[in-house]
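tmp note - AIFM3 factor
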Amino acid sequence: FLFVPAVEVKIEVVIPEKERSKEEMSPNGKASPLIYKVNGTARHYHLEEHPIASNPYHNPKDVVEASACHVKDVENGQMREVDLGCGKALLIKESGEFHAVGHKCPHYGAPLVKGVLSKGRIRCPWHGACFNIGTGDIEDFPGLDSLPRFQVKIEKEKVYIRASKQALQTQRRTKMMAKCISLSNYNLSSTNVLIIGAGAAGLVCAETLRQEGFSDRIVMCTMERHLPYDRPKLSKSMDSHPEQITLRPKEFFCTYDIEVLTEMQVAAVDIKNKTAVFKDGFKMEYNKLLIATGNMPKALSCKGKEVENVFNIRTPEDANRVVKLATSKNVVIVGASFLGMEVAAYLAERAHSVSLVELEEVPFKKFFGERVGHAVMKMFESNRVKFYMQTEVSELREQEGKLKEVVLKSGKVLRADVCVVGVGAVPATGFLKQSGINIDSKGFIVVNKMMQTNIPGVFAAGDAVTFPLALRNNKKVNVPHWQMAHMHGRIAALNMLAHGMEISTVPYLWTAMFGKSIRYAGHGEGFDDVVIQGDLDELKFVAFYTK
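out:
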């Protein structure tokens, strides 16, 4: 029970002024448009110009007022949810100043009051997204939207709250974006910015360009049939339909003139002529290129690998089909990877049986270490998942073309109606082999801290790259995490616009299984000791990976 004295705190929702670029204002008070060259032609780009209203509330009926607390009731470094009747705001006090923003993370709706406040930023307690408390802007990912910002007024030791009902209900704010000018004048076979891949990195790159005022043509292309979607849900929420997990609706792409070419595969890149060649023979010229193709799942190499009902989870259709086939049936999962383990956890209550085959002696050994891997394995075993460790698949047997049994090298034969393969992935960069773009021995695209490749004007981002990680003394690493793909896309966009921005974010990932969430920050590759604090058996612990 929280006693709130009968004094008032006043917060006012402010629609932020236009996101201004770093350029000087022109004498007439409007932002000076930048000039950007495309195919040798100078083009201007700038944000849409809106008169800044003196009253941010266009509709007085949309405004709500409510009381919260006396200024002394909130200490420095404290956060408090304030209920305004038709929604909540998060009231924050730091360095003697009050701020107020939306109280829910726009990513998955986590209560930010349970997050961490530090140095003018609040970090989401669930998945690590980070927001500036002064502006509400998203500064680290995952997620695409920022928080609504509310103005705080203090009068006579009281703070009065005033807020837009709409902002309180939506709890999110999409940054102002430019639109494309003169789209009808474009040659269909040329674009200023071409983005190959429509995952998190590609989408954030396109959005960041528009947020920064870029108003030339942007084309994204993808082999998939869908608009960009929330890929982690393929293994965490397998029965989600494509329309339920799209990151932005179709109308968003139309509004901001971000063109998405679906079911279009790039077969080669001609860097000399700045041209992408598609599998069907279509060619598109570009001025700036982002390669964000992600990775491709490894397939099994055993006998019978072509039989029906063996899946790599690559698309929403794959995930949906597996759930349908697995219900009340026998499932075998090959590989105790994040994907394999999440699929096992999701299907455990739905399938008749779930068996998991893995080459190592415990799951996640290389990533989490043996002790944490053992604790996770015990949790799975108590939820009816059967492990077959230190072995691999030698044959997939069929009956009438469909999977019937999985034979292990240990000699064990497992009944199987459906098999999910999660034995790792390789970067989807085969089409770049003759391009002149620098690729390492494992197939990863090598980039610098600004996500630039060795070719001017060509950037790369996401799961298919290695980049210098600041917190590991600029060691070149591959970090195939959802959060990092977002940040790569943002950094690439800013450097397409010559901002000179270097990546410095801390890698972060999460996984959720049987109601337990494991969150991992940093890059512990090559650890030689694990220091555990807390109770590993209860899975309430912190593990420090040291070297």
